[in-house]
Structures are given as structure tokens and as C-alpha cells.
Amino acid sequence: MAMEEILSDAALDGPLHAALTQLDDAAKLIGLDDAIHHKLRKPKRVMMVSIPTAMDDGSTQVFTGYRAQHSMERGPCKGGIRYHPDVTIEEVIALAMWMTWKCAVVNIPYGGAKGGVVCNPKEMSVGELERMTRRFTTELVEVIGPEKDIPAPDVYTDAQTMAWIMDTYSMQKGYSVPAVVTGKPIALGGSLGREAATGRGCVFCIREAMRRLEIPMDGAKFAVQGFGNVGAWAARLLEPLGPKMMAASDSRGGVYNPDGIPVLDLVKHKEETGRVGGFPGADDISNEELLELECDVLIPAALENAIHEGNAGNIKATMVAEGANGPTTPDAQDILNDNGVFVIPDILANSGGVTVSYFEWVQGLQAYFWTEDEVNERLERIMVRAFDEVYAESQKRSVDMRAAAMAVAVGRVAEAQAMRGIYP
Ligand code: NAD
């Protein structure tokens, strides 16, 4: 399929529509040069590969995988790999584009990439997942690498997946290359603090925003859609600052208690039962109901398009902190703005993960590792600086935080592109 077709099919709806609309709006806001704007609307490179995989029952299943590299203007590409039945090429391109802006907004020297395999990991054995991952890595071996493109975990991939990618890549090269991925197990050169980093970064942003909006921490209430890595860590780190979690959900539904749900107890319940539903002392609640609860902070930390034109008007939270990538559609953002909801956009709110991934890559290249306190302190410095810069931009231009974050990020990428020029 031609790139034009993919981009025009996406013109109607979905995450790529959202990503392109956000870029176009930012281009208008900062008066972006037309040539650079056109270049940034398209990914630099998209790989689509077949992944034949031996299944446990003796059959062979051929999965489809993608890796989109949006931009390398500011350094190697960086971005996660997602295993999900709904992965599409358009989604992967959109997520790659968001990675470019995310790395730029926190000012780390990377461009953006994303990968995905269309599969249902919940129905696959560990052996099947390992074989699929190793074959996918082999197909990507020419385009990834510590100086080219560095994958990381995303939805339904984890440290074990990264270990398989690192091992497969290293076997192909003939020597160990730990810096080819981040989000690795600690034993293979993973960074302390990486697992909690996205949730921690999100909480630094929430804390800064609550200060600006003068919302007291004590007595504040929050709700989390998607109690996975990002959502659960954000909840675990926000609760000790004072706010109470009144609701949380996963793909099978949610739980609600207006007096508060102890976060660690829910983590334990989810570990034991595999879901948040059925938590003792809380009522069941649907994902839709959770989004519409009256609370101070709503953390959408599941998938894209959770807050859309149909439900944005019902959001009663004072603040939305986007743990997930692309949880708010452009139409929904307009409605939230009209209703005075303060949105900390994904490229800022969830950039703690890529920031500590950057630390992991730096530590791996130097073969010199930091303590967890050092990681967390450096993360806090970067997140607070990025929040301050975006907030100042939003005040200066009288725009919402997403427009401000995009203006900062696109401005940085455009400056790098202008200095490099268009080759040849
Ligand atoms: P995860 O798989 O650990 O957790 C996702 C959670 O969302 C799971 O609990 C799942 O059950 C739940 N979920 C899925 N569909 C849902 C639905 N329709 N309604 C409610 N809950 C649903 O994944 P994660 O790593 O926490 O990623 C979550 C989001 O954060 C994704 O958008 C991802 O791209 C983004 N993100 C992750 C990181 C990271 O470091 N892991 C960094 C930046 C952004």
C-alpha cells in the first residue's frame, strides 16, 4: 500500500488522524516551514514483515509485524513494541510520530519509532511468544541497533520480550549488544527504576499541575483506566502524596469505592486473580462509568481513543493525565477545553518511560550503572523541567497544554531538521 493511501485512509478517523491533526495544528501555531511540515507528516521508513511461527500444536501461524521509524533528526529512533490483535500499520505510524514529539518534549536525543505484531498474546504460550519474538527480531535486524533504532516494551510486551530481542540480535551480530533494547531485565543491563518510570513521570506531572491549579493533595481523588504497568505504578506513587484512588479498571471492567481503594491491595488482588474486578469492598463499574466519575485526576492508562466526542462532555475530572498514548481524540480535546478540563498530554505525561529508557541506553553504552535514587532524581529533574517549559509555552501562547507541548516538540525537531538540511 502506498504511503499516500495509508495517510489518506487515516484522514477519517483513528490515532493517525489524531496524530496528523495535532501536527498540522502545531505547524500552524508555530508557523512551521512547509517543506519541514510535509516531511514530518510522513514516517521516514515503515517495515512490514511476515513472522512464521511454529505453534505448540505443530501448526505454523504467520503473524504480521510492523516497525515504523518516523524521524531520526535528533538521534536514533526510539519506541516500544506492542503485541495486540488490533495493531494496524496506521496505529504504528501514529505511535511512532508521538514518540518523536515525546523525545523532543523532554529534550532527549532521539527520534521516534514504534513496532507491533498483530497477535493475541493472551492465547499464546511462552514458547510461542518467544519463537514469534525471535523471528520478528531477525526480520528487523538490519533496521534496529543501538545507533539506529532501539525498541522497548509496550502493551503486552515486557522485560522478557526485550531479553529475547537482545539475545536474538546479539546472536546475529556475534557479540552481546545490550543497548539494542531498553526495558531489559536488570540482570542483562536494565536500569533500576525503569519499570515504574512511566507512572513515576506521570505523577511528577500531576504533582506540578496540582500545584499550578492549587488543588490540595490531601483529600484529592483519582481514577485509573487501565491498571497495568503505567496505571498501577502511577496509582502506587500518587497515593502516598495524599490523593485517594476511588476507581480503577482493566480490559474486563473496573471497581469503585468513593471512600478509596488501597492501591497495594488492588495490585495484590490483580496479581492473584488476574483482574481488578471482584475486589472486596468495592462495587463493579464499567470502563465508561469510570471515565465519567467526579474526581480531581483521571488517568487514562489503557489504549487510544478512550475519551472521544461521545463521552468527552461527560468527563467531570478537573484534570486528565494521559498515561496512555493517544487516549483523547482531537474532537474530545476541544470539548474538554470548552469545559475547562486541564489535560496533561501523553507526550509529556507518559514521557518518564522513554526518559529512563534513555538512561538505560546511556548506562549500557558506558557499561556503568546508576543507583535507583540517581535514576529517580535525574528523572524528576527532566520531568519538572519539561512540565515547566510546556506550561510556560501554554501561558505565552494562550493555548492548552497539548498544543503547547506540540509547539515545543515540533519546534525542536524542526530546528534540528533545518540545521541538517534536506539531503542531498
Ligand atoms: P499494560 O499491558 O501493562 O497495561 C494495560 C492495561 O490496560 C491492562 O491492565 C489492560 O487490561 C488494560 N486495558 C486494555 N484495554 C482496556 C480497555 N478497553 N479499558 C480499560 N482497560 C483496558 O500496558 P502499559 O505498558 O501500562 O501501557 C498502557 C498505555 O501506556 C499504552 O497506551 C502504552 O502505549 C502507554 N505507555 C506505556 C509506557 C510504558 O513504559 N509501559 C510508556 C509510555 C506510554
Which series of helices and strands comes N to C?
HHHEEEHEHEHHEHEEHEHEEHEHHHH
Q: DSSP strand (E) fraction? A: 15-25%
Give helix % range.
40-55%
Briefly note the CATH topology name of the domain at 43-179.
Rossmann fold
Question: What strand order characterises the main sheet?
Answer: 9-8-7-6-10-11-12
Uncertain runs with pLDDT below 50, 5 residues or more? none
Shape: globular
Return the CATH architecture of the domain at 43-179: 3-Layer(aba) Sandwich
Bound small-molecule species: nicotinamide-adenine-dinucleotide
How many E strands? 12
CATH class value of the domain at 43-179? Alpha Beta
Helix count, per DSSP? Answer: 15
Overview of this protein structure:
- The protein has 424 residues and is an alpha/beta fold.
- Among the domains are: 43-179, Rossmann fold (3-Layer(aba) Sandwich); 197-328, Rossmann fold (3-Layer(aba) Sandwich), CATH 3.40.50.
- It has 15 helices and 12 strands.
- The protein has helices at residues 3-9, 14-30, 34-40, 89-105, 126-140, 159-173, 194-213, 229-238, 263-273, 287-291, 330-338, 346-349, 352-366, 372-397, 401-420, and strands at 45-54, 60-69, 77-84, 111-118, 149-153, 221-225, 244-250, 253-256, 283-285, 297-300, 319-321, 342-344.
- The strands form 2 sheets. A 7-stranded mixed β-sheet has the order 9-8-7-6-10-11-12, with helices on both faces. It has a 5-stranded mixed β-sheet with strand order 1-2-4-3-5.
- Helix 11 (330-338) links the parallel strand 11 and strand 12 (342-344).
- Helix 4 crosses helix 15 and helix 5 crosses helix 6 (159-173).
- The longest helix is centred in the C-terminal third of the chain and has 26 residues, at 372-397.
- It starts with a helix and ends with a helix.
- Bound molecules: nicotinamide-adenine-dinucleotide (NAD).
- Residues 153-156, 198, 225-231, 249-251, 287, 301-303, 323-325, 350, 353 line the site of nicotinamide-adenine-dinucleotide.
